[in-house]
Amino acid sequence: PGVRKEAENLFIELYKTLGPSLEKLLVGQKQAVVDKLIKEAKKQCGDVVRSDSQREEQKKAATNYIASQVKSDYLPEYIVRILGQATVELLKSANPKKRQKGLVEVKKAVSKLTVNLNDKKARELADPITHLMRQILSDESSEVYLEALKIVRYIISSLAPHLGALDLHILIGSFIGIIVSNTVSSNIRIQVSSDKVIIFFAKHSNIGPLVVARDIVKNIEKIS
């Protein structure tokens, strides 16, 4: 009951931003429960329901913002020092095979950092890792993207036990939108692998379904 109540409060909070598009999530529920929840959400929103054109404009703006963030992103000097210039050059290569090789080197570098990892060191790594994840997950090569998903799972598994709930939420929220958008990819391998990573986050003892659900719902309009 406590989890359900929290989920209902989350629905009402997000309804203020996303409006009626959230109603399609209420599947398999008793109609009376659905009607009551939607009524309460509209009441708290002042019954303001945005037009389709307004929602479309918001969707485009959000998508363009994320795209611009990815394209203009950079690797902080701290990460460059950790990875080494040779690895960075591999990641920047026009050759997908070399970029894949660069990801292998990334995993090696991160594995060294996570030896005797403590909370302070994990927090220091969180921000530069965020930039790195956005970079590698935005790769246009399907093979590089699939390899990047493996790196994401490895890094999150290593850092999660040492990060507070807020730091972990910020870290995941910074790049989960890229993964969510690929759950509807025409490439079945990308689609299935992206789904598996989302499920992995939801089942992770330090993350959980509510954190993942919050971030997925924030991105739902961009893929609907």
Automatic annotation (TrEMBL):
SUPFAM superfamilies (UniProt xref): ARM repeat (SSF48371)
Recorded GO CC terms: cilium
InterPro entries (UniProt xref): ARM-like, ARM-type_fold, CEP104-like
Superkingdom of origin organism: Eukaryota
A Pfam short name: CEP104-like_TOG
Designated name of the protein: Uncharacterized protein
